[in-house]
Structure formats: structure tokens, C-alpha cells
Amino acid sequence: MNINATLLGQTTLLLAIVFAAIGFYLGKRKTETPILVSVVAFFSALIPLIGLIFLIVLVFKKDRPTEQNS
Q1: DSSP state of 66
Q2: CA 39-12-58 angle, 5° bins
Q3: I need a surface site. Which of 6, 26, 29, 38 has the fewest CB within 10 A?
Q4: Buried residues in 27-55 as b, exposed as e (16+ CB within 10 A)
């Protein structure tokens, strides 16, 4: 079975973009630095298992407290 390098590269790039978007969304809710979380999620997608573990850790992290103007 042959692996097409172009397809593998495109799949990895698409996965990295999806991980970065999910990382940014979770980073806004759970950290002070969503851009940094998004960048780390993007590069962790190069090894998908590490990327999934990173996103799972973000999901289980507690949300930041929100300010209420009451």
C-alpha cells in the first residue's frame, strides 16, 4: 500500500488548523493566553496523539472566573 505524501501533508495541515481553532476556543474560556494555547495546539497536531492529549487536558481544566457587573 502506497502512502501519498501530498494527501498526508494536506491531512496534517487540516488537522493542525482544526486543533488550533479548538485550542483557541478552549483557551479563551480556560486560560489568560488563548493565542499561545492556539499556537501550541497547532504544533502539537503534528503528532496527533499529543494534540489529542493536549486538548483533553484543556477540556478538563476549570473555566476562568468571569467578572459580573452587578
Answers
A1: P
A2: 40
A3: 6
A4: beebbeebeebbebbbebbeeeeebeebb
**55-65 confidence digits (pLDDT tens):** 999 999 988 88
Please state at what angle helix 34-44 crosses helix 5-30, rounded to 10 degrees: 150
| Residue found by looking up cell 486543533 in the block | 19
CA 63 to chain centre: 16
Q: Is 23 in contact with 37 (CB distance < 8 Å)?
A: yes
24 residue type, one letter: F
